[in-house]
Design goal:
Elements: H1 2-20, E1 28-36, E2 42-45, E3 48-51, E4 54-59, E5 62-68, E6 72-74, E7 85-92, E8 101-105, E9 109-126, E10 136-139, E11 142-146, E12 154-161, E13 164-165, E14 172-176, E15 180-188, E16 191-199, E17 205-208, E18 211-214, E19 217-222, E20 226-231, E21 235-237, E22 248-255, E23 264-267, E24 272-289, E25 296-301, E26 305-308, E27 317-324, E28 327-328, E29 335-338, E30 343-351, E31 355-363, E32 369-372, E33 375-378, E34 381-386, E35 390-395, E36 399-401, E37 412-419, E38 428-431, E39 436-446
Length: 456
């Protein structure tokens, strides 16, 4: 009977459980933490370091403390050394900006932390020496303007950003969409020398980019630069110590490359010289000593042949010689000059005397064969002639002499070069109006004798 009652009770309990269901245990839910725009962000969950995305189940009602490490940095680029990306917590996806925050898990829940992102920008120059401003941390997707500054001795060439050549725009605008390594590349300046010369005379006024200089003028210029060159025209100068005041006048003719533009623009791509050819006129002053007439002033073109003579009653004077820029040019009349510079010309007169002494000598050695009026002498030789008389003088050329005891027979040869007044005629005719000395300048050659001892 007892067994029947126990079986009945067991069946009753089973039926009740089947009808009412078994009582449930504690519930659990999943908490997920993510970060935007990037994953892999360091977080702390209940004091334990984790990395997003983080997901874990908790019993219903559990409170979890979640903290986003902020700010935090990490290395994301091979082009920038060290940590190059910085993350700063902004807010949660539910607009809550509490960090750290406590989250009660009563359901499956996802919380996303919105992160502010900054990227590091590194700037440098190649070669080193230029400071390109703009390095440091910049907000993601910001536009950064970079300028390559001038660097002495170099010219900016191009930018290289993260290994990519971005050409030569300067300044450069860069979108900071990732860490940036920006290098401003420079090339060494190629420098050349520009030289300005004037001909036929130097020390004339020339200009480079409007600045006045005296020719010749050299200037070191960066390759490829454009310069304006010019020569002042007309211009006048005092170039001779023998005349007082302006004695030369110049007008521009052309450049040595036949260009006639003045001023002109030139591009410097090599060492180059520009020569300005000038039309030149020189002043010639003619006077008498003692003063027999007023000084005459003449302007003549360079290279022209100029002749001058005088006539009329000379009173108690006889013409002696021409003194040209301090040099005795003899007594030949008319005076002929090729105008290659300014000249101060004086016709020198001497008081008439019945007789004058004519001396003919030789240099560098004397006792050479000379002739005066057809008579042979050894130099030096002086003769007295009446005023105004003409005669012919000369020197034997070539002639040989024995001057050394060490060489048998004639060992020195003399050849006529010119007279002391630069006249090269030999013989030459002269007219005597004063005491005069004429020196024949000779070229020397020596005999070199060779022999053996004993002979053979």
């Amino acid at each position: 009977m007892k067994k029947k009652l126990l079986l009945f009770a067991s069946l009753t309990v089973f039926l009740i459980l089947m009808l009412t269901g078994c009582p449930s245990g504690p519930k659990s839910f999943t908490l997920t933490i993510t970060t935007l725009p990037d994953a892999g962000i360091q977080i702390i969950v209940d004091l334990v370091n984790k990395v997003t995305p983080f997901s874990q189940k908790y019993q219903e009602g559990t409170t979890v403390e979640v903290q986003i490490t902020s700010p935090q940095e990490r290395d994301t680029s091979a082009f920038v050394g060290g940590d190059d990306t910085k993350y700063t917590f902004q807010q949660w996806n539910d607009a809550n900006n509490t960090n750290p925050r406590n989250i009660t898990v009563n359901s499956n829940i996802v919380h996303t932390a919105q992160m502010g992102v900054q990227y590091k920008v590194e700037t440098s120059s190649n070669p080193a020496g230029a400071v390109v401003t703009g390095s440091g941390w910049h907000n993601k997707n910001a536009n950064l303007t970079l300028t390559a500054p001038a660097m002495a001795g170099y010219t900016f060439s191009h930018w290289v950003v993260n290994g990519v050549n971005l050409e030569s725009a300067n300044p450069l605008v860069v979108a900071v969409n990732n860490p940036k390594n920006v290098v401003a590349h420079y090339t060494p300046d190629v420098q050349y020398t520009l030289t300005l010369i004037t001909l036929p005379d130097l020390a004339l006024d020339v200009r480079i980019d409007g600045t006045l200089y005296s020719s010749p003028k050299g200037m070191v210029i960066q390759g490829g630069a454009s310069k304006q060159i010019s020569v002042d025209t007309p211009q006048q100068k005092d170039i001779s110590p023998w005349l007082t005041g302006i004695d030369a006048r110049y007008t521009f003719a052309n450049w040595d490359d036949t260009n006639t533009s003045n001023p002109r623009n030139v591009t410097i791509n090599s060492d180059i010289t520009y020569t300005a050819f000038m039309n030149a006129e020189y002043r010639l002053d003619v006077s008498a000593s003692p003063t027999l007439w007023e000084t005459g002033v003449y302007w003549n073109a360079r290279g022209s042949l100029w002749e001058f003579d005088f006539s009329g009653d000379l009173g108690p004077y006889n013409f002696s010689h021409w003194l040209v820029n301090g040099q005795n040019l003899g007594s030949a009349r008319p005076l002929e000059l090729v105008v290659d510079k300014p000249y101060n010309i004086a016709a020198v007169f001497a008081t008439q005397q019945p007789d004058y002494t004519l001396t003919v000598t030789t240099s560098p050695h004397t006792e050479l064969n000379i002739s005066i009026g057809g008579t042979n002498y050894l130099s030096p030789k002086s003769v007295v002639l009446s005023s105004g008389s003409s005669t012919q003088i000369g020197v034997t050329s070539p002639q040989n002499k024995d001057t050394s005891p060490h060489v048998a027979e004639n060992d020195t040869r003399y050849t006529f070069q010119q007279w002391n007044d630069t006249n090269t005629q030999n013989p030459r005719d002269i007219t005597l109006y004063s005491d005069m000395t004429y020196t024949a300048e000779m070229k020397l050659e020596y005999l070199v004798a060779t022999f053996s001892s004993p002979a053979g």
